[in-house]
Amino acid sequence: MFHASCCVLHNDMINLNLLSPEKRKILATTLAYLTLERIALSLLALLAATAGILFFARTIVHSNLQTITAHREETAREYASINKEVGEANGTLRAIRELQRESFGWTSALAEIFALVPENVTLASLTVDRGGNTVILRGRAQTRDALLQFRERLEANPLLKSVSVPLSSLTLRENVDFEIRAALVPPRQP
């Protein structure tokens, strides 16, 4: 009565399969297609959700990029004047360093020259020709020997060279008015 292909005994239960083998094959194929369709729809929904998330993320990133770009441009405008001032200050500092490197220490040089004046010699004036680096000392010495002593001190000083006293100043023995000329030795560059 029961056909072997139409029923199955399973755990004391009987399953009846009333479909013909052809219809069972069609049903199995249809179930497979439906399963594949569900999987494809699930993947499509997942892809659509991913695309939506990516689009939303792109919109946020684009908005943030515009904000950052605007902020950077605003900051650049704010600091452009500061950068210009810093550049000008750096240029001024370079010019000052160059001037200091090339300058002559007049204060210390003059103090050193004044320290060479003996007690019995009085300076009336000291003239500096910066262009020619020449010093002209005018004054009065009580004696010719005091004037010669002053000249020797000047000649021994490393700041001066070519110290000259006119012979007319050496003819008098006392109260000798003089004019001494000397060339300044340029300082050594570091």
Question: What can you tell me about this protein's structure?
Answer:
The chain has a 4-stranded antiparallel beta sheet, with helices on one face. It has a two-stranded antiparallel ribbon with strand order 1-2. The longest helix is centred in the N-terminal third of the chain and has 82 residues, at 21-102. Helices cover 55% and strands 23% of the residues. It is α+β, with helices and mostly antiparallel strands and 190 residues long. The mean pLDDT is 84. The radius of gyration is 54 Å and the shape is rod-shaped. A hairpin with a 2-residue loop joins strand 1 (7-10) and strand 2 (13-16). The chain has a domain at 106-184: General secretion pathway protein M, EpsM (Gyrase A, domain 2, 2-Layer Sandwich), CATH 3.30.1360. The termini are far apart. It contains 3 helices and 6 strands, in the order ββααββαββ.
Mean pLDDT: 84
- Number of helices in the DSSP assignment: 3
Helix content: 55-70%
User: Count the strands?
Assistant: 6
Q: Provide the CATH top-level class of the domain at 106-184.
A: Alpha Beta
Please name the fourth-level CATH homologous superfamily of the domain at 106-184: General secretion pathway protein M, EpsM
Element-by-element helix/strand order: EEHHEEHEE
Features:
4-stranded antiparallel β-sheet, alpha+beta, 190 residues, two-stranded antiparallel sheet, Gyrase A, domain 2, single chain, rod-shaped
SSE order and pairing:
Blueprint: E1 7-10, E2 13-16, H1 21-102, H2 106-115, E3 121-129, E4 134-143, H3 144-156, E5 160-164, E6 174-184
Outline:
This protein is an alpha+beta fold. The chain has helices at 21-102, 106-115, 144-156; strands spanning 7-10, 13-16, 121-129, 134-143, 160-164, 174-184. The protein contains 3 helices and 6 strands; from the N terminus they run E-E-H-H-E-E-H-E-E.
